[in-house]
Amino acid sequence: MYDMKDLYEARSVDHAISLLKEHPEAQIIAGGSDVLVQMREGKRAGVELVSIYGLDELRGVRMEKDGTLRIGPLTSFSHIAEDPLIRRYISVLGEAVDMVGGPQIRNIGTIGGNTCNGVTSADSASTLFAWDAVIELTGPEGVRQIPIRDFYIRAGKVDLRPAELQTGILIRRDSYEGYRGHYIKYAMRNAMDIATLGCSVNVKLSDDKKTFIDVRIAYGVAGPVPIRAAHAEAAGRGLPVTEDSIEKISSTVLEDVTPRDSWRASKAFREHISKVLCKRALTEAVKMAGQEDTEDIGEGVTEDSAEAGESVEICRDAAPKTVQFSGDSAGIRTGNRRYKLVRCRINGVEREAVVDVRASLTDMLRNDYSLTSVKKGCEVGECGACNVIIDGECYNSCIYLAVWADGKEIRTLEGLMGPGGELSDIQQAFIDEAAVQCGFCTPGVIMSAVEILESGKEYSRDELRKLLSGHLCRCTGYENILNAVEKTMKKRLAEKGGISLCSDN
Predict the structure, then answer these.
(1) How far is it, in rounded angstroms, from Cα 431 to Cα 439?
(2) Could you give the CA distance from residue 107 to residue 397 in angstroms, rounded to a whole number?
(3) When comparing pLDDT for 334 and 256, which is higher?
(4) Comparing 69-78, 182-191, 365-374, which segment has the lowest mean pLDDT?
(5) Architecture label for domain 63-70+113-312
(6) CB contact set of 297 (below 8 Å; sequence gap of 6+)
(7) pLDDT given for residue 44 in this prediction
(8) Which of 191, 192, 367, 499 is least enclosed, having the fewest CB within 10 Å?
(9) The pLDDT of residue 505 is above 80
(10) What is the pTM of this model?
(11) Residues 6+ apart with CB under 8 A from 358
(12) Side-chain half-sphere CA neighbours of 377 within 13 A
């Protein structure tokens, strides 16, 4: 159980604002990858929460008629990374958020939550700074839009007024048209680690690709909030595209960055890598900008497809399946505790249970349905022992509220077996490859493997390492685990006639 005073579920943006006005001390919860973790750590113990998880209107990416890209704040990192509009116009943002945590964190973590936390190390933050993003906020006084540079006030503090919530992240057409970029994250580990320093660079070159028309350089962890390297940007404009120019621009960033000493890295080291990362990111951005771009911005958006002022959806729905909460959100109250009926489908069987609103999905699956393959490990989304499949995507069930499971399709390890108790191919592969030692982490790893295998793609061994990165194995059996997943992937592809659907990752 989470130590919370109460949970209120918003049915719409207006309803969320009303709940925040009614409960002025309440905090917003979107995906839970930060709020619930902090609650476990005691930092937000006993708080009231307003859940906006069910607001599908705040999910997805679309292009508006004027070419503005609108990113819904509840869009998960994994959906941003795969979205066709992101890939086409601002691919560097997809690259950046694909470095956040492990795959399960990217499935639940939202870009709105990432920016509203106000932390300088957020991979999305510096990237959005480089795109001159605009933050849309909606509250009792209506809608306001502010540049992201003004949204960040100080470390951990953003310009969110009482009863206000983020309703959009906007990137104007003139902020991305003609620009190409690259993001580099320096961290102690290749996965599941926050940035020691992050650098995002966008460049716009002349038609002949020989001159810098514009340069944008943004950093995370180079100051208390994400920053733009204004002196370096000014120094780069009008310079010829040469190695000497890149060296000059990169050296000038030292006039802008103000890192500090910490246990992760010294100030001197961060200053050093500020220059190095800028040089590398600039070089890659120039390479990308040198490629011919034959695609027109806003292709498919016409006067016939939309009324003036309306937004036009020109991509697939990037939102996962979510329930729209209806009726009385108060549920059943007994004393100081509140309960709610949750109906879902677990391992192919329709289920319903009355759950405490403080309960995690792990609690519900173990306590109400005795699905003990779902392990309680870290309970902060780091070890992956509690992983389950929800509507086709793998999640850490320890940082997923049970009430969010309403209307969902959930699979656990128990659901992989055949009608006679036969093991699935991936379970058998774990036995064959000796990928099971103590067995504690095994169910969660297998569920991650299920999502990977059901994609139907062929991944390289390095790609599989990244996709399995959200797990901690106490027995350090990582290589055998990797062998089992790779073996099963190749077996399934061979059964399909040897057709290989290569990954774009």
Answers:
(1) 11
(2) 12
(3) 256
(4) 182-191
(5) 2-Layer Sandwich (3.30)
(6) 67, 89, 173, 177
(7) 86
(8) 499
(9) no
(10) 0.85
(11) 1, 2, 3, 4, 7, 337
(12) 25
